[in-house]
Design a protein that fits this description.
alpha/beta; Rossmann fold; eight-stranded parallel β-sheet; 46% helix; elongated
Length: 1219
């Protein structure tokens, strides 16, 4: 008798049904057989499999060739592949794969889930790892093994559970892998669909059986709820009522047959159009597919205070991600502990932290711990260590075990490598549940008064579809859902005294939906916001938007400093010189991020363009509209050129229509030379670029600001420009020190005139840790430049000093001695018997110099040689002809000073500076800029200087001092027979009385007046006609060449003792501002300000440079006078001059200690700090003149030589005395 041809929906199809001998599996198998399929029943249990197969054969008379068996463990891929090979050998193909097999998993709360068999509590018989394999692996493995043998039109049906999307107390080990199956099915449908294989998922609800009733009864007991509570919870969300045997509509659970019939449909050709569909066999349970939302706004950390809170970051091998989280959390004030599941990751993190510590000595690295949840003892030890050393972690952020690259070699899940699939299930799915379990256990055992908060965070986009990441996401979603539910119910028991547990709140941040560079930063910021603010977002999955900038209106997470800036300067226009880099570039950047429109001016177009492009990107990310219009540049702008400053102002107004902020930032480092080596042109260039340009721009924008009713001018000075009433010596940088002191003094003196509409302030940072300090390209940094200059000047000063001492001892012409140096050989010089000072110098060089340096064998390099002859010529020791004829016969090979020598000296300079910082660290360019941007927001401060310098306090500061007392008679007696040089012609009454005192009271031999003009000379001589007649009072008009006049005076009358340098010209009688509606024609112009600087600052530079090279001289610099009759503007200008000049006086006073002549330099000021203290009548003016004479005598009467008293020789120079 022939076997009848089967008929039905599945006729001719070959199906494998895993778990086919189980309760539901048997019903499915029978239905498939009824519909004509050939069925392979696969099951783990051989006895059950054999018994069911025999029943089908004996009782239902199924033909042997239509029902086959395969005994296999679906969680064991090796067994699966072997069984599938046998099936294919017998049947040739598979049309339907029903992945029905599974296990219940351990029925335990999260904290009690067994990790090892010793922890099992009957009736449980699976550990967590086994449950994952029996629920996720048991579907993934057969699919990978069978799919290659399935023809187009085939169907894979995977059984999940509706409980993979609902609360399910005590069943995390069951529902978490089922949730991962849901994501797996989606990926499989995409991969296999191209081969004509459809993949669908069935979500059975609670199936009407004694088993489900037992399960719910166990849950009720675990929850501590009345019997039937769990069942009722699910009934409450069921929409469908079905008729019972009596035809009455009642609520009930779906039947096993409902599931089997759905399986039949999905296996049949009726479902050919269905793939990647979820079929919920639940009687209409209202269960969302996913609990999710998208983060559509900036996280906003400005009000998040994590002080006193401790966050444990549980990372895998993602060092960069963990450190990024740490930085964000720390920016909010949190204490952070980094835990890694990979020891090599700890080593990499330690290396990064060491580098951070090297960059910032005050950087405190976080605590690092090894905590691998698959090694529970490591996690227990780590938590104990953290609790003991830092405290109980209140919050935790959990990352996957591996970074996204870990599974890149096996991107298709349908063909995943066995080892990778196994590792993913063990390390990622088991690992994340185990980590949560151990934290839950720790928090339950540790008495806490807070509700723990946990954030899970996926990896970023892997570029391969994120299939593994999405499985992890789905598993974690369900883990969070049930963890929340369990701890919430357990916490409710506290009222009954049954538990002290706190409810855990958790969310998951899904990063892989965004491929932008800011994904990590944005995710970290939101993690910090959620975890620290204790914000409760009901949705579990929090997705990053695909495009952060479009969705949120900004491309940045905007935490920390950036967040506090937004809108701070909205609508303002800032014109910034030196805006291509450094402090200026950072100020421009932060002002743009604060909402201002910025015009960045600098010389280099390429660097400006690069800065603009970077700023446009940041401004766009910050959410401001039209960033291209907000950020503008003005290249080829040299602030030392007046025409460039006018063009800049005009261009800014043409572009923006107004200027609210003028940031006078541009400047140059200066000549970096001692006073006596500095060319006059270099001095002028520095003052022009750093100081005169500031006034020029102020003069241009002040009328605009006045008329618009507001404005802010900020001069970027330097700590080395001094503080109010205090000068700071800055050796080798007198031009820079004066220019920076002038920027500060301008603020203090001119603020009253710019108000009330316009504020003017200054910032005065010290050395700033940035490109200019470290050096860029081929230009060395500040400390390296200073180190080289120190070494060069030390050699220059030593050689210069030795020549002068030789001249003093022998009176031989210096030109002749100079010829001895042309050989440029230290060894030859060491044998020179007739010039001991040069021989001693050569011996010292041979003994003390670096053997690797050519400076040990060569006395000079070309740079030092040129400075040496310039000094000697300036001092009058040699002639112009001598300079032209002298040159070195031998030139040392480079380097004259080795890199090691320079670096050693640079370290001394750096250590010296850092040692003067109260905070022991230099501010960065960013630090100064952000302080500046906040400073600009203060509308109540003007005329002040802010010092973001790290607490820099220089040792030798010089304060303006009042005149008290007179010089001692023994010192005044030393003035007898001296020659006095008096430079000036504007202070006629003062200079006349001073000359009278020297000549009449103290017996000076002669007073030589050096004036600018013939008229000035005649006026001064007329004041003392008797002395003019007897030749003791003489005059030499300089006609603008002060240096030549001093040379003529020396040649005619000999070297001076006292030298008094006073200005040739009085202060200009001009206004400093006009009212908002006033006429600005009478206001001090740009060129007139330049003349003011030339007449009252550069004038003293020229005198001091000459006099500092004269043995036995003493020099006093005198500033112009004011009285009660002087205008407010004259009083302000005079104070500006005296304050600025004091920086020069203090600097030259220190420099003079380093050269052989040791000329004391001091300053006498004829303008007081308070205008009310100025002389008001003729008698008071006479008294002031008398005080002036006493002050000059005090500082020009011979002072102690360093050989006599190092102490007094230092403190009696660089002072400014107020008369």
């Amino acid at each position: 008798m022939s076997t009848p041809t089967p008929s039905g929906l599945l006729a001719g199809k070959i199906a494998i049904i895993t778990g086919g001998a189980g309760n539901i599996g048997q019903v499915i198998t029978r239905r498939y057989l009824e519909e004509g399929a050939t069925v392979v029943i696969a099951d783990l249990f051989a006895d059950k499999l054999h018994e069911f197969h025999q029943t089908l054969m004996d009782e239902e008379h199924i033909a042997a060739d239509r029902v086959l068996t395969a005994q296999m463990d679906g969680s064991d891929m090796k067994q699966v592949r072997s069984c599938v090979a046998d099936i294919i050998a017998r049947l040739g193909r598979v049309d339907i794969l029903v992945n029905n097999a599974g296990s219940p998993g351990p029925r335990q709360r999260l904290d009690n889930i067994p990790m090892i068999r010793e922890e099992l509590v009957p009736p449980d018989n699976e550990t967590l790892r086994q449950a994952i394999g029996n629920l996720l692996g048991i579907i993934w493995n057969p699919t990978r093994a069978v799919a290659p043998h399935m023809p187009p039109g085939s169907s894979i049906i995977n059984v999940s559970t509706i409980f993979s999307r609902t609360d399910y107390y005590g069943r995390i080990a069951y529902v978490v892998p089922k949730a991962a199956v849901n994501s797996l099915d989606h990926s499989l449908s995409q991969e296999l669909g191209v081969h004509g294989i459809r993949v669908n998922t069935i979500y059975p609800g609670p199936i009407d059986s004694q088993r489900i009733r037992s399960v719910f009864e166990s849950m009720d007991k675990l929850k501590g709820l009345p019997g039937g509570s769990t069942a009722q919870e699910f009934f409450d969300i069921m929409a469908l009522r079905r008729p019972n045997d009596d035809g009455e509509l009642v609520q009930g659970f779906p039947k096993t047959l409902d599931v089997a019939n759905t399986m039949v449909f999905l296996g049949s050709d009726l479902s050919m159009a269905f793939s990647d569909h979820a079929f919920e066999v639940t009687n209409g349970m209202d269960v969302p597919v996913e609990s999710a939302t998208t983060l559509v706004s900036r996280p906003g950390l400005r009000n998040v205070d994590a002080s006193g809170k401790m966050v444990l970051v549980c990372a895998g091998d993602q060092v960069d991600d963990a450190l990024a989280l740490m930085h964000v959390l720390r920016s909010c004030g949190a204490e952070v502990v980094l835990g890694f599941r990979d020891r090599s990751a700890i080593a990499r993190a330690e290396q990064v932290l060491r580098e951070n510590r090297q960059q910032d000595l005050h950087y405190t690295p976080p605590t690092l711990v090894y905590m691998n949840p698959l090694e529970p003892e490591s996690t227990e030890a780590a938590l104990a260590k953290v609790q003991e050393s830092v405290g109980v972690p209140q919050y935790s952020i959990i990352l996957p075990t591996y970074s996204s690259e870990a599974f890149a070699s096996s991107t298709a899940l349908a063909t995943a490598d066995d080892e990778i699939a196994s590792r993913f299930m063990d390390e990622e799915i088991v690992g994340v549940v185990a980590m949560a379990s151990q934290l839950d256990r720790f928090w339950r055992k540790t008495p806490v008064q807070f509700s723990p908060h946990v954030i899970f965070m996926t990896n970023g986009d892997d570029g391969q579809g994120n299939k593994y990441a999405d499985m992890w996401r789905a598993a974690v979603e369900q883990l969070i859902r049930v963890w929340r539910h369990e701890t919430k119910l357990d916490a409710a028991k506290q009222a009954e005294g049954d538990s002290a547990v706190q409810p855990v709140w958790a969310n998951q941040i899904v990063r892989y939906t965004n491929q932008e560079s800011g994904s990590l930063e944005f995710g970290c910021a939101w993690a910090a916001k959620l975890i620290i603010s204790e914000r409760r977002v009901d949705e579990i999955n929090l997705y990053l938007p695909a495009n952060i900038s479009i969705t949120t209106g900004t491309g940045r997470p905007s935490f920390g400093w950036a967040e506090s800036l937004f809108g701070l300067h909205l609508g303002k226009v800032a014109m910034i010189t030196g805006g291509s880099a450094g402090i200026g570039g950072q100020v421009g950047r932060l002002l743009a991020l604060s909402g201002a429109s910025v015009m960045l001016a600098a010389r280099g177009e390429a660097q400006l363009t690069q800065m603009r492009e970077s700023l446009i990107q940041e401004v766009r990310q910050a959410g401001y509209v039209n960033p291209e219009q907000r950020v503008q540049i003005f290249p080829d702008c040299d602030v030392s050129r007046e025409e460039d400053l006018q063009r800049l102002t005009d261009h800014t107004l043409a572009t923006f229509g107004r200027i609210d902020y003028l940031i006078n930032n541009a400047g140059i480092a200066g000549a970096e030379e001692m006073l006596i080596d500095m060319p006059l042109d270099a001095w002028r260039h520095t003052l022009n670029a750093n100081l005169i340009s500031n006034y020029s721009l102020i003069r241009k924008v002040a009328p605009l600001m006045k008329s618009q009713g507001s404005g802010y001018i900020l001069n970027v000075s330097s700590y080395f420009g001094g503080e109010k009433y205090v000068a700071i010596p800055y050796p080798n940088r007198s031009d820079y020190a004066v220019s920076k002191a002038g920027q500060r003094a301008m603020v203090e003196s001119f603020a009253r005139f710019l108000g009330p509409e316009v504020q003017i302030n200054a910032i005065a940072p010290g050395p700033v840790d940035g490109d200019r300090l470290r050096g860029t390209g081929e230009r060395p940094g500040l400390f390296m430049r200073r180190a080289r200059l120190i070494l060069e000047n030390r050699r220059l000063n030593d050689v210069h000093g030795a020549l002068v001492e030789a001249y003093r001892a022998t009176k031989q012409p210096v030109a002749g001695m100079l010829r001895l140096l042309t050989a440029n050989d230290v060894h030859i010089l060491s044998r020179t018997d007739h010039l001991p000072s040069l021989r001693q110098l050569a011996n010292a060089i041979e003994e003390q110099s670096d053997p690797q340096s050519t400076s040990r064998t060569y006395l000079l390099n070309e740079t030092i040689a040129q400075k040496l002859v310039r000094r000697l010529r300036l001092a009058g020791y040699i002639s112009d002809a001598d300079v032209e004829s002298w040159q070195l016969e031998r030139h040392p090979p480079d380097p004259f000073f080795t890199k090691t020598q320079i670096e050693r000296e640079a370290r001394k300079v750096r250590d010296g500076v850092v040692g003067m910082l109260y905070l022991h660290r230099m501010p960065t360019e960013f630090d100064v800029a952000i302080a500046t941007v906040y400073y600009l927001a203060d509308h109540n401060v003007t005329g002040e200087t802010f010092h973001p310098s790290g607490g820099l306090r220089f040792e030798r500061t010089v304060t303006e001092g009042e005149l008290f007392g007179r010089a001692g008679q023994h010192r005044l007696a030393m003035l007898r027979d001296s020659t006095v040089f008096v430079v000036g012609e504007s202070l006629v009454p003062y200079l006349t009385e001073l000359a009278r005192a020297y000549l009449d009271e103290y017996g000076s031999k002669r007073v030589v007046l050096i004036t600018e003009t013939e008229e000035g000379a005649e006026k001064l001589l007329a004041g003392l006609p008797d002395h003019a007649a007897d030749g003791r009072l003489v005059a030499i008009p300089s006609h603008g060449t002060i240096e030549d006049a001093i040379d003529r005076a020396r040649a005619t009358y000999g070297d001076p003792g006292p030298v008094i340098s006073s200005p040739f010209r009085s202060l200009p009688s001009r206004s400093l501002t006009a009212s908002s509606e006033g006429e600005w024609g009478d206001v001090l112009s740009e060129s007139e300000f330049g003349e003011l600087i030339e007449d009252h600052l550069t004038h003293h530079f020229r005198v001091a440079q000459k006099i500092s090279l004269i043995d036995g001289a003493t020099l006093v610099l005198v500033t112009t006078s004011t009285s009660a009759r002087s205008t407010l503007e004259e009083f302000a200008m005079s104070n500006f001059i005296k304050t600025t000049l004091h920086a020069f006086t203090a600097t030259v006073g220190v420099e003079s200690e380093r050269i052989v002549h040791h000329v004391p330099v001091n300053q006498v000021d004829l303008t007081r700090r308070s205008r009310a203290e100025e002389p008001r009548n003729a008698a008071e003016e006479t008294e002031e003149i008398e005080r002036f004479v006493n002050a000059v005598l005090l500082v020009t009467a011979p002072l102690p030589d360093p050989k006599d008293s190092r102490y007094r020789s230092r403190i009696y120079r660089g002072n400014a005395i107020i008369v």
